[in-house]
Amino acid sequence: MNGVIISIDGACRRPGTPECSAIGAYFVKDISTNIIYDSGAVVEYNSTGQRGEILGLINALKKCIDLFNTGRVDVVYIISDSEYVTNCIN
Q: In the chain, where do the E strands start and end?
């Protein structure tokens, strides 16, 4: 079985103000070889920390879809410190 671990995190700068912005960071790593397939961060203005978490998840999952379509991945494990993300997935 070929698997990857995706790890995500999100944050918000100046929450509750007109200048607020969220960031979602992620990386996608092969379980057996430790090769990092992708990593990055996404910024969204006028947003929240929860949206930052989801943005990181969405971008990581997009990479997993590409890996699945090429036959390199068939299982995905998600690491997140966000109860919101966990509840969204479950």
A: 3-13, 21-30, 36-45, 75-79
